[in-house]
Specification:
The chain has helices at residues 36-50, 75-85, 98-105, 122-126, 129-137, 155-163, 173-187, 202-215, 225-232, 247-257, 298-309, 330-341, 351-359, 373-380, 386-389, 394-398; strands at 15-20, 54-58, 90-92, 112-115, 141-145, 169-171, 193-197, 218-221, 236-237, 261-262, 266-270, 279-283, 286-287, 292-296, 313-317, 345-348, 368-369. The chain is an alpha/beta fold. The longest helix has 15 residues, at 36-50. The radius of gyration is 23 Å and the shape is elongated.
Length: 401
Amino acid sequence: MSYLTIDDVEVSGKRVLMRVDFNVPLNDQGEITDTRRIEMALPSIKSVVDRGGKLILISHLGRPKGSVNPAMSLQPVARELSRMMDQPVMFAHDTVGDDSRAKVDALDDGGIVLLENLRFQPGEKEGDPVFAATLASYADIYCNNAFGTCHRADASMVAVPQAMRGKPKVVGSLVEKEIEYLSTVISNPERPFVAILGGAKVSDKINVINNLLGICDQVLIGGAMAYTFSLAQGGSVGNSLVEPDKVELAKELIERGGEKLVLPIDTHAGDAFDANCNKRVVPAGQIPDRFEGLDIGPETARHFASIIHGCKTVVWNGPMGVFEMPPFDEGTKIVAQAIADTSCTSIIGGGDSAAAIAQLGFEDSVTHVSTGGGASLAMLEGKKFAAVELLDQKMEVSGQE
């Protein structure tokens, strides 16, 4: 599916309402500690500004639960964006009140205003059509450039584009790229196509595993959810993190997956959740009492790496172990290194996997790092997003394709 992009529409002298994901981390002093989400929105922001559009930015930050919380104000983001763009960025102290309306009306061509945190308004999470209609009234064009919230039905994602009847509704470059890799590439991958899934819970990834077993050549399982699969095979898991209520589900996946489903061969275990604990490498499913699995073992890491080296497309979501705590980061490091060393199309599915790739310095060695953990998981499950399907398709709008 090809969607109309912000670069495809004329913006000069027009007001563009752009939903961005400026949900950045702030320290106790209200300072931004990681600016990547702002940086990734810049290409589409510059596209509007450089062509004389009047840009209205909307975003959430944190979970203020529908009430004003000064600690979650977007004002620090306005200051940082002003610095990055080397131009003034107005900040509206409300979202749909007098200040936002006045500052939207005061916009010059090429000007930018950032409205206050959407989630200060209960109507955002409620998908309130009245709240959405007010936001929609601010602009001539709507642009979705917030992939991290594309799987949600928040007002700014669904009700606002619904309210902008007859006006262009387009994607920004960030969402365009996410759709390209997480939907288009995966629906028609170059083979062999391998998925690597980690993390704590089978329940978090069940729909992803089911979907990918139907389209991948192999699905590699690591992380704590591997111990639930060990239980399903009659193994012992000691004090490992498991989901006993998901054992039958794991059995079904093992039966359905057959040789496609690749489980760990060995486990790096410790007698405490601590870097200085007593450690053992044991066969998978043979974790002794008082020990817990904290990483895939070295033989598993080598086996996974050899499979990765032979693939043409790889998607990775979820670390192989406790990657924040050496030496239990080794499995994740080896998998990440193998992905970085290949020439295949490599897609990192946001969340902890993206954090691991960044921490290890491999961001420039992979094809695509998703900006949305929950959204990327939902897309890997094969879900459709109303926030995307409401946007204009190129064929329907341009008539040129």
